[in-house]
Every structure is written in C-alpha cells, then in structure tokens.
Amino acid sequence: MSARRVAVISAGLSTPSSSRMLADRLAVATSAALSVRGADVIVDAIELRDHAHAITDNMITGFARPELEAAINAVVSADAIIAVTPVFSSSYSGLFKSFIDVLDPDSLRGTPVLLGANGGTPRHSLALDYALRPLFAYLHADVVPTGVYASSADWGGVDEGIAPLAERIERAGRELAEAITRREPARMADPFDPDSYLGEGRSFGHLLGGLAGE
Nearest to residue 112, comparing CAs of 142, 148, 76, 133? Predict the structure, then answer.
C-alpha cells in the first residue's frame, strides 16, 4: 500500500495550544491505525495561527501568499484531514472558518475528515454536531462518525476524564484510518496540471477572488 498523506489543521491561537495538542494526538492515533493496516503515513501539520494575516489578505484580494498556497495544497491534495478548532461563542473560531472559506467549495468532496474541538467546559461539546458537521457536510466531505471534544478537565492527567478522552481519540483515529483505506490514494496537487485543484477544483473566477460567484 502506498503512503497516505494526512493534513492536520489546527486553529489554536496560543502557544502551546490545546487545539494543537488534541490534533497531534488524533494524528498519532490515525497513524498507528494505518500502520496496523500496512500503510506508511505522511503527516502535514498546518497551524492556522501562522497564516492568519495571509488568510485575511486572501479573503480580501483573492490571492494567496506562497506559504498559504502551500498549506492549501497540502489540505486539498491529502488523503484525509484532521481538523481541530477551539470553541469560541459556542462555535468554531473565526480563523478556522476563514481558512475553510478560502478553499474551493468542491475541493474536499469525498475526503475523509476527522473533527476535533476543545474548550474550557464540557457544555460546548455539541459544537461538533451543530456547527462543524454541517460545515463539512456542505463541503461534501466524508466525516467519520466519532468527533472528539476535549474540555480543560480532559487534560488533567490524573482526572477521571482522561481515560474517556484517550478512548475517543483511539476510536476516531481507527475510523479515519478505515475511511482512508477504503479510498484511492490522493495525488499531490500540481499547479501546472489542468486536472489538479488549480484547474478543475478551483475555477478561474475563484482564483480572482470569487468573482464568478458574485
């Protein structure tokens, strides 16, 4: 089996970030489950915090800086995506949504996606179902059944909540690995290939700032 590429999107704003910590653990669980199935794994970690200004510029101008274009390439050409956001005001963060908005709406069609979120209280766990799932359903992504929400108590180490979190992470990673193995390997996006995401996936109007959709 050829190597599978997993893009890990983390929308945390702080350093260190609980979102990145959760994203990394989900990536490890997915990689372990894929290794059991005989697949090599390449993980592309994308910290949206590092691209915040470039994402804003892209939304205004319709053009991405080279480093943001590389991040977009990694996401749309991946075999699967792990997407983790902090929960702000009972939903995904503005930075997370802004990055999703600069992707072509068709670029994630059929891509297996594992959703994760973190927040200070367990009360926000439903954001996975009423905010994140509808967003990726609109994009026609293949979202795995288990989403993983981590509250502050889940990171306590000796807290009883840590075991359920570990179990949810393992189950979600296994589900994503199963979804990946059912799917044909993705190929790297080539900006000079008319069949890559810069050709069919992203229309010329989209590259000019979404003019075709206005």
Answer: 142
- Helix, strand or coil, per DSSP, at residue 61: helix
Helix axis angle for 52-61 and 94-102, nearest 10°, is: 50
In angstroms, rounded to a whole number, what is the distance separating the alpha carbons of residues 209 and 212?
Answer: 8
- Domain boundaries defined on the chain: 4-213
Work out the number of other CB atoms within 10 angstroms of the CB of residue 32.
14
What CATH number labels 4-213?
A: 3.40.50.360
> Rounded CA gap, 63 and 69, in Å?
9
As a whole number of angstroms, the distance between CA 62 and CA 214 comes to 13
pTM score, whole prediction: 0.84
Question: Which segments of 37-111 are extended strands (E)?
Answer: 41-47, 80-88, 91-92
Q: What is the pLDDT of residues 163-209, one digit of tens each?
A: 589 999 999 999 999 999 998 766 555 544 544 444 344 443 444 44
Residue 51 makes CB contacts below 8 A (sequence gap 6+) with: 67, 68, 71, 99
pLDDT tens digit sequence for 5-34 = 999 999 999 888 899 999 999 999 999 999
**Residue 131 · residue 107 · CB < 8 Å:** no
